[in-house]
Write a structure and sequence with these properties.
Layout (H helix, E strand, L loop, with lengths): L1 E7 L4 H17 L3 E7 L2 H7 L14 H9 L6 E2 L8 H13 L14 H11 L7 H4 L3 E3 L4 H9 L14 E3 L6 H4 L1 E4 L4 E9 L4 E10 L4 E4 L4 H17 L3 E4 L9 H13 L1 H14 L6 H11 L5 H14 L5 E3 L4 E2 L9 H10 L3 E3 L5 E7 L3 H17 L13 E3 L5 H4 L11 E7 L5 E6 L2 E3 L11
Parallel strand pairs: 1-2, 1-3, 5-14, 10-14
Antiparallel strand pairs: 4-15, 6-9, 7-8, 7-16, 11-12, 13-14, 16-17, 17-18
Helix pairs in contact: 9-10, 10-11, 11-13
Length: 464
């Protein structure tokens, strides 16, 4: 009997599954097709990578690994629903919930102290962020909507807010020093194995990644973002938002770009709370606050802490929120700001929602306001600014005629947005990053002293 694999996930699709899956099974059964389910929810992904910590009755199959193998076969047929791409705070909440139900999972080690903790962190990191898509999309992905669905959407268009040519909404993005400005790519003529090595100013060599096997005809791509350029951009835009009394919002994809974007989020967070960190930076570090995890994590850490300066720190946070540029709200009723949790900042959801709402986002009073949209890396920014410009000139887009851009076709095996996670580095020392061929020992490309030179392709992450 032919079969279709249906992914059990979390979030809203879980609700749809309870009503939709029985209908699918009823229809396909008459055609001799069997519907099988595979659990790739965050909880299932966590449990699957820690079988040695669980009792026999608690162990679960690694459904994601199984589906990854199926996706590469010619007769694969997988219905993949949206799933949680967990940030660190979400992952820790899931771990705590599972531990509370009796599963013997280890805690997530923020700063591993030994080889065992390094291994535990590595396993958890394999399921956080966008862990599902890079596995399943090595198969042939098809997101086209059936014609009846398209016709229904045209006949029942979703609401679009009116636009004014006087709207102050705009995208703020870096003009230099970002990933887009520095990107270089080449196509390899032959297969080779390379290492990524940091050569520090004092001559010490640190291997960042070893044994990367590259295929003949493969495209290798590399880029850097300058921390100095990023901070200068953020300071300017945050000050401008305050001076012009415009709502401030941040748009990244910290769950998909799970190394780079949480770091960028952390720099935005620290820049917004610059006075707080100037006055209490060492105390926040003592308490265990990680700016990459956002305001909610900071408040939880403070609530759990008995630090003598706790009240002063909380007062400083409230002072900054009152006196700084007003933050766009994820949930005004609950007081959740745009900087609360990095996984709430999802550019391909937040920017379209803003554009549908007349180019506005919610303030603390639950009212819509024009917004400065911070999109640090200009790779993302152009399409959104062009859409905003169009709407200011022509009015809101019309869902009945605007069309769609479906995702159809075979994804790259190691697409940049997914495959770069273990090859992206935040450097702690100045020096030169080199990509070195193992068979020749020659530098494949490098960057030096905050600037990079190009032989073939640069290494990632030249520090400033």
């Amino acid at each position: 009997m032919a079969s279709i694999l249906y992914t059990k996930t979390d979030e809203a699709p879980a609700l749809a599954t309870y009503s939709f899956l029985p209908i699918v099974k009823a229809y396909t059964q008459t055609a001799g097709i069997q519907i099988e389910t595979r659990d790739i929810s965050l909880a299932a992904r966590v449990l699957a990578v820690f079988p040695d910590f669980l009792s026999e009755d608690q162990k679960v199959n690694n459904a994601l690994s199984e589906l990854g193998a199926v996706a590469k076969t010619a007769d694969a047929n997988i219905i993949k629903l949206p799933n949680i791409s967990a940030s660190i705070p979400q992952l820790k909440e899931a771990i705590a919930e599972l531990q509370g139900q009796g599963f013997g999972l280890p805690n997530y080690p923020d700063e591993p102290a030994n080889a065992q903790e390094e291994e535990i962190k590595k396993r958890y990191d394999s399921v956080k962020g966008s862990a599902v898509n890079p596995v399943l999309r090595e198969g042939n992905s098809d997101r086209r909507a059936p014609k009846p669905v398209k016709n229904y959407a045209k006949q029942n268009p979703h609401r679009m807010g009116a636009w004014s040519s006087n709207s102050n909404t705009h995208v703020a993005t870096m003009s230099s020093g970002d990933f887009r400005s520095n990107e270089k790519s080449i196509t390899l003529k032959e297969a080779q194995v390379v290492d990524i090595v940091l050569v520090k100013v004092n001559g010490e060599r640190q291997v960042l990644k070893s044994g990367i096997a590259l295929q003949a005809g493969e495209i290798i791509d590399s880029t850097i973002m300058s921390k100095k350029a990023l901070l200068a951009f953020l300071q300017k835009e945050i000050a401008e938002a305050k001076a012009n009394n415009i709502l401030l919002s941040l748009h990244l994809k910290a769950t998909m770009m799970k190394v780079s974007d949480p770091i960028i989020f952390g720099h935005v967070f620290q820049t917004y709370f610059q006075e707080l960190y100037a006055d209490f930076g060492s105390e926040l570090e003592e308490i265990g606050v990680n700016p990459n995890n956002g305001l909610e994590s900071m408040l939880i850490r403070l609530e759990e802490s008995d630090h003598p300066k706790k009240k002063a720190i909380l007062a400083a946070i409230n002072k900054q929120l009152d006196n700084g540029p007003q933050l766009a709200m994820v949930n005004s009723d609950k007081g959740i700001t745009n900087l609360h949790v990095p996984s709430d900042v999802i550019i391909d959801a937040s920017m379209p929602a803003m554009i549908r709402n007349s180019g506005q986002m919610w303030n603390t009073a639950g009212e819509l306001e024009d917004t400065k949209a911070l999109i640090p890396d200009s790779s993302y920014s152009g399409i959104y600014q062009a859409t905003i410009d169009f709407c200011k000139k022509n009015g809101a887009l019309d869902p009945r005629t605007m069309g769609t851009v479906p995702n159809v076709g075979l994804m790259a095996q190691k697409a940049e947005e997914y495959g770069s996670h273990d090859k992206t580095f935040e450097l702690s020392a100045a020096g030169t990053v080199q990509v070195i061929r193992q068979d020749t020992g020659g530098a494949f490309g490098a960057c030096r002293g905050g600037r990079r030179y190009l032989e073939n392709v640069p290494g990632k992450g030249c520090p400033d």
